[in-house]
Amino acid sequence: MADYQFLSFTVEEAIATIKLNRPPVNALSRDFLREIDQAFDAIGQDPKIKAVVIASAIQNVFIAGVDLKEMAAITNPEEVMGVIKLGQAVFDKIENSDKPVIAAIHGACVGGGQELAMACHIRVASDRTRFAQPEIALGIMPGFGGTQRLARIVGASRAAELLLTGDLLTPQEALRIGLVNHVVSDGALLKTAREIAKKIVRHGMPAIRASLRALRTGLDLSLADGLKTEAEAFKTLLSTQDMREGILAFLEKRQPKFTDS
User: Fold this and answer.
1) pLDDT score recorded for residue 69
2) How far is CA 2 from the centre of its chain?
3) CATH for 205-251, among 1.10.10, 2.30.30, 1.10.1660, 1.10.12?
4) Contact between residue 124 and residue 105 where contact means Cβ atoms under 8 Å apart
5) CB within 8 A of 174, min separation 6: which ones?
6) Which letter does DSSP use for residue 169 in this model?
7) How many C-beta neighbours within 10 Å does residue 4 have?
8) What is the distance between the alpha carbons of residues 237 and 110, in angstroms, rounded to a whole number?
9) Biggest CA pair distance of the chain
10) What is the pTM of this model?
11) Helix (H), strand (E) at residue 125
12) pLDDT at 163
C-alpha cells in the first residue's frame, strides 16, 4: 500500500477507513487532493474492499475548505482552473465509486469539506458539526461541485439560500433538510459509520454495484429512462452466483453466504 503524507488508510472486515490528516484544518491543497485521488484508485483496485468510511483525524474539523493560501498565490487563471478541475475530478471519483462511501463528519465541514461530504453516498454527522458553503463571503462561489450536488440533495430553493447567504447549518438543521442521514454523539460517530458499512458489506458486491450505478445514473434521467436503467442493471444480476445463493438461502431460511460473484 502506498505511503501517504496527509491521510491514513486502513482496511478491516472489507471496510477501508480513510482518515484525513493535514493540520491544522485539513485545507484542500492540490497535493492533498491528489492523495485522496490515489487512495480511491487503490480502493477501486482492491477486491477485498467493499465499502469506505472517510473521516478526519483532526479534532473539531472535518475539512475547513480549500487551501486559500495556495489559491491566493496563483495568479494565472488557467492554473486556478486546473485546481477546480482537479477537485471536481477527485469528488466525481468518490461519487462514481462502485463501493459505497460513508462520510463520518465532525467539527467544521465547510466549503470544499461540505463538497467532499456531498460526493459521498451516505453522510453521518456528529452533534458538534457545522456545515456551510461560505464562498460567497469571499467574493467567489463553490467550484468542486457545491452548486450542483447541494441542489440535488436539498432542492434548488434551499440550496440557493445556503449558497447566497453562506449561512452555517447546525447538524440538526442539516438532518432536517436531508443533507445528512444521521446525527449522533461525537463519541459514537466512527462507530456508527462503521456499523452502516458492516451492514452493507454483508451483501454481495454485484448487487451493491448494480444498485449504486442505477441510483447514480437515474438521477439525471426521466422516470421512464431511469426505469429502463434499473431493469438493465437488474438483468446483470441474473447470472450471478450471489443471486442464486441469496434466493436459495431465503427459501431455506438461513443466512446467505455471498461470494461477490
Assistant:
1) 94
2) 21
3) 1.10.12
4) yes
5) 125, 129, 131, 180, 183
6) B
7) 18
8) 39
9) 67
10) 0.96
11) strand 122-126
12) 98
Q: What is the reported pLDDT for 130?
A: 97
**Contact present, 120 and 112 (Cβ < 8 Å):** no
pLDDT at 244: 96
Q: List, for the chain, all residue ranges whose pLDDT scores fall below the cut of 50.
A: none
Reply yes or no: is the peptide bond before residue 206 cis, omega within 30 of 0: no
Contact 256, 245 (CB under 8 A): yes
**What is the C-alpha to C-alpha distance for residues 74 and 109, in angstroms, rounded to an integer?**
24
Other beta carbons within 10 Å of 40: 21
Question: ∠ at Cα 28 (81, 188), nearest 5°?
Answer: 140
Domain boundaries, the chain: 7-201, 205-251
Residues with catalytic function: 115, 135
What are the C-alpha distances in Å from 81 to residues 32, 87, 244? 17, 10, 49
Number of alpha helices (DSSP H) and beta strands (DSSP E) in the chain: 11, 9
Q: What is the spatial distance between Cα 232 and Cα 20, in angstroms, rounded to a whole number?
A: 37
Comparing CA positions, the residue from 117, 221, 100, 107 lying closest to residue 178 is 117
User: Mapped to the 3 state alphabet, what secondary structure does 49-107 carry?
Assistant: CCEEEEEECCCCEEECCECHHHHHCCCCHHHHHHHHHHHHHHHHHHHCCCCCEEEEECC
pLDDT, position 114: 98
Query: How many residues are there in the chain?
Result: 261
Query: E strands within the chain?
Result: 7-12, 15-20, 51-56, 61-63, 101-105, 108-110, 122-126, 130-132, 182-184
- Let me know if 29 is exposed, middle or buried by CB neighbors in 10 A (0-12, 13-18, 19+): middle
Q: Which CATH architecture has domain 7-201?
A: Alpha-Beta Complex (3.90)
What confidence score (pLDDT) does residue 1 get?
A: 56
Helix or strand (DSSP H, E) at 122: strand 122-126
